[in-house]
Design brief:
7 helices; 32% helix; seven-stranded parallel beta sheet; alpha/beta; 10 strands; Rossmann fold
Length: 245
Amino acid sequence: MVRIFPNKVQMSAAAASHAAAVLRKRLDQQKNLRLVAATGASQLLFLQHLAQESSIDWSRVELFHLDEYIGLGEDHPASFARYIRQQIIEPLHISRYHLLNGTRPPADVIAEANTVISQSPIDLAFVGIGENGHLAFNDPPADFQTEQPYILVELDKACRQQQVNEGWFPSLDAVPRQAISMSIQQILKSGEIICVVPGPQKAKAVQASLEGPICPEVPASILRTHPHVTFFLDKDAASQLQVQT
């Protein structure tokens, strides 16, 4: 399902309302819920609106995040663990969470994360789409086959330049070249997926993901194979779609 809104504020509010409804429904049906959350500038308004939603028992939510830079600790402004803590864990008072530590040996972090996330299915995932079509930090051409939940990935130049453009780093050389990322197959194992994508800079990637071939060169295109995914786009992000929903 693709939903398009006039601006990112309305898009974010609608995505948060939808996410809250999914969370409430699942928590009515089961004791606990496992959630994966994306980070980045594109997700900020969505998460702020979600934090305002009432009647969600966040004490029953176990949180994972999608990716983290190798070599960055939570003291760095671009750390995704820092972002998760500031934008999700603290505002929502989530007590059960699993943060990827970019300063520890990657093999150890991956092994531990894979053990924990494999203990039970993920109920809901929040994701975005990168300017190069990446899903999490799975840059093109992405590995569509590996069943390993978290993997070590190389970040391409387009992905790294996006981080500079968004203000997370002062220059391309300052952006790490490697990251830990949730794999494509692990993302697809989520019971439901909510994909939030605002901005004109994402229009080309959105068009390729939703209307082009499903292929590793456009990693986010794989989302179309999931039976329960909803795309929330603002008018700018949807501007290159041939079919406006």
